Amino acid sequence: MRHLGYIYIGIYLYKVYRNLRRRPAASKNGAFCAGLCVAQTCAGRKTAMDEKKLRVYTTAVSIAGLSVFLLSLWEVYPYYLPGSSRGDIWSYSLMMVLLMVVCRMLPIYFAEDKTLEISFVPVLACAITGGAPLAVVLFGVSTLFTVMQNPATKHYYWPLAREPRKELFNTGNILVSISAGGLPLLLAGMPDNLASLPALGLSLLFAALCILVNLTLFILYYQVGGMGQFGTLMRQNIGGLLPNIIATVPLGLLLGIVINMPNSYFYIVLFMAPLMLARYSFKLYLDSKSMHMRTIAALSMAVDAKDHYTQGHSRRVAYYSEAIARAMHKSPSFVADVKTAALLHDVGKIGIDDAVLNKPAALTAEEFELIQQHPVMGRKIIDSIRFSDTVNDAVLYHHHRYDAKGYPAEGPAPGELPLSAAILAVADTFDAMTSDRPYRNGMSREQALAVMQEVAGSQLDPKVVEVFISLAPELDAAREPEESLL
Q1: Is Transmembrane helix one of the keywords (predicted)?
Q2: How many domains does the chain have?
Q3: What is the per-residue pLDDT for 177?
């Protein structure tokens, strides 16, 4: 039987290898998403050389993961032999694999673009009750049975068949991470009393090492692919470690304690039920929020369709504004509000006559006065939706200059323009200057940035201009970032 198992593994790996030869590895966004923690990244474009480096890197991580799996399998193989001291190993393994599969298929969302992979909870519980090698083996086995749902079609698929290179990289990453996190457990030994401070300390150390190694290998993917600098990406994502550690360690310890109790299967069901309910409730909230954002995006596209000369303008301004806010290290809620405001900043144009909006020549003074009413009209339109002050101020004051000139005439004093409006003004100005109009051609990026530097401190907020200029080479490469907004 042992030899048949090795033959089966060999046949399976050969099939996977053949799939790797046929399939490209890039996902929709050209990036892999690590399993234990989901990081936000700002990836640039890949060259053919970068793609070759990525193939070498992902193959190396996959081989490292396979090596760790085989070494761990050799370590735990005696557990499954007849007469082993671990008499309940088969039922224990089945239970842990089932928990890992369910948790991998159903992550908990704690923000719109961040998930907590609660598969780490059974991984930690397995590591502290059965040892890190057993956790490595069972997590590797769970990969064979994990299926995922396509968010667009709602159809389920097997990742190993659909995206083998991606799945092998992610699994290899996690297996290496579990192995690294298990070193303190191997050196110090897990105390029998899991409800003790030493057990808590070792669990925290295991979680910290495991998630840190996982994040490091994930970020190295972007570094190797020329899609970002390691230090910058690490600083952007290191903050995501704390929620994962705080949330998963107590749950993993508690699950480990429950596993050692009599009638543990019954208590495990009770343990997992609240987690699944919390996941379902928060997913409903995020689905509702996503629908809200899609409605806003559709409204902005309706405005763009009304004004034929600014097609795609709101989407580009939203892209630029969001990037500026992130570069200024603003809170996620502020970034989301700025993006929303950018999508809606011209919604007041719905109340402007089409003949004025689509005039193929320069506007008269009277016509320009009508155009100047669109920020006030836009604010009135969104008032009933009860957006935050960040959104309201940006929509109302995105044409109000930094020196308190511009329109509307009544607004903040010089130098006191709300930051959301200042960001939106910079993004709006850049896109307007670089876009073609019937009566003029758009400026080049260099010309537009030079003009913005000249008016910094008078028309535009100088700090925001400085940030935008540092980002402009990357941002201007994506003039139509439609998918990221919807």
Answers
A1: yes
A2: 2
A3: 92
Q: Which of 260, 295, 319 is the last residue of a domain?
A: 260
Query: Nearest to residue 194, comparing CAs of 120, 245, 254, 269?
Result: 254
Cβ atoms within 10 Å of 429's Cβ, excluding its own: 22
Q: Average pLDDT by consecutive 10-residue portion of the chain (486 residues)?
A: 39 40 35 36 53 87 94 91 80 90 75 63 88 93 87 78 87 92 81 77 84 85 73 64 69 83 78 74 73 74 67 84 92 89 86 75 79 86 82 90 85 87 92 77 85 90 92 65 42
Q: Domain span at residue 468?
A: 286-485
Can you give the pLDDT at residue 302? 72
Nearest 5°: the CA angle 49, 55, 58 is 135
Confirm if 390 and 338 have CB atoms less than 8 A apart.
yes
282: number of CA atoms within 13 Å, CB side? Answer: 17
List phi, psi (to 5°) of 240. -75, -10
Does residue 105 sit in the same domain as residue 241?
Answer: yes
Which residues fall within 8 angstroms of residue 154, CB to CB, at 6 or more apart? none
Alpha carbons 429 and 431: distance in angstroms, whole number: 6
Give me the pLDDT at residue 289, please.
Answer: 72
Q: Torsions phi, psi of 395, nearest 5?
A: -65, -40
Handedness of CA 452, 456, 459, 463 (dihedral sign): positive
Report d(CA 127, CA 125) in Å as an integer.
Answer: 6
Report pLDDT for 189: 77
Only one residue has tokens 């993006």, namely 339
Which secondary structure element, helix H or strand E, spans residue 8, and what is its range? helix 2-22
In this structure, what DSSP letter does residue 328 have? T
Joined together, the tokens standing for residue 335 give 């970034």
Three-state DSSP state, 116? strand
